[in-house]
Amino acid sequence: MATLSPHAALLLTVSYCALLGLAIGSFLNVVIYRVPRSLSVIRPRSSCPGCGNFIASRDNIPLVSWLLLRGRCRHCASRIAVRYPLVEFATSVLFAATAWRLGPHWPLLAFLVANAALLALAAIDLDHLLLPKSIIYPTLASVVLWLIVTAGSTHQWHRLVIAACCSLIWGVVFFVLNFVTPQVLGFGDVRLAYLLGLLLGWCSIGSVLLGFFLANFIGAVVGVILIASGKLNRKQPVPYGVFLNAGYLVVFLFGRGLLSLFPHLTFN
After folding, report:
1. Which of 39, 48, 81, 243 has the highest local Cβ count within 10 Å?
2. 10 and 62 co-located in one domain
């Protein structure tokens, strides 16, 4: 039986993850809407907010159904927010990029789970200035478990130790910042710091430092632009979790090139 070449295996993995991302993105839409409202993500089935009719399976195909229905409910013709297909498409692209970055290797599952959760958290934070622990804690537990399996299977215990130390350090740093300035930094950001420290720490210590630097840089730039345009005042809270996720994502996807500018910050 012929074996796939590394290039073919990578392309197959990327394609599969892109399709998987569409399905997961559909579920994330449910999570984004229901979790902040303390609703079950399992029951009841999704329904049209306009007429209340349950959405049939044929109308719930990620991305495709929205396009075929031209963004309207089949029963009452109410508009279906464009956000739903955008989340599905974004998840598909994110999963494909994650697979391209890591390839068909052990850490892939941990980062797919984490990246899906981070996308949902960013959307919720934008809407509600909230980072639910009901998402962060299960994600953190799942990632830790799979990275332990990965370390045991690939004999990369040193990376796991580094990741755990980075997670602990950044969690403590954010805990102190929350204690000193709770009006600026919410405790949801503290929980998120543990997860991002773990993920970037698995990549390298330099990734952690650069990731959190970029988070603050992006946040500062966006904040200045919004204040200058009059869309935000200095006393308004900002969705800092979005900026944390943005800094993480930039480093995760493009860290090799960025860290090459700093020879002492290696990207493993």
Report:
1. 243
2. yes
pLDDT digits (tens, 9 = 90+) for 124-167: 999 999 999 999 999 999 999 999 999 999 999 999 999 999 99
Taking the C-alpha atoms of residue 238 and residue 126, their distance in angstroms, rounded to an integer, is 8
- Sign (positive or negative) of CA dihedral 144, 148, 153, 156: positive
What single DSSP character describes residue 53?
P
pLDDT value at 265 more than 60: no
Q: Which residue has the tokens 């796939």?
A: 4
Instruction: Domain of residue 79: give its range.
Output: 1-104
Query: Which residues is 79 bridged to in the sheet?
Result: 72
Which tens digit of pLDDT belongs to each residue from 53-81? 888 888 889 999 899 888 888 888 888 89
pLDDT the model gives residue 229: 79
Mean pLDDT, all residues of the chain: 90
* Domain stop point among 88, 104, 120: 104
Residue among 43, 49, 73 at smallest CA distance from 60: 73
Radius of gyration over every alpha carbon of the chain, rounded to an integer in angstroms: 20
